[in-house]
Amino acid sequence: MKTVITYGTFDLFHVGHVNLLKRARSLGDRLIVGVSTDEFNLNEKGKTTIVPYEHRVKVLASCRYVDLVIPEHSWQQKIDDIRKYQVNTFVMGDDWQGKFDELSALCEVKYLPRTQNISSTSIKQAMSVLLQLNRELQ
Ligand code: CTP
Question: How far is the C-alpha of 44 from the C-alpha of 51, rounded, in Å?
Answer without folding.
Answer: 18
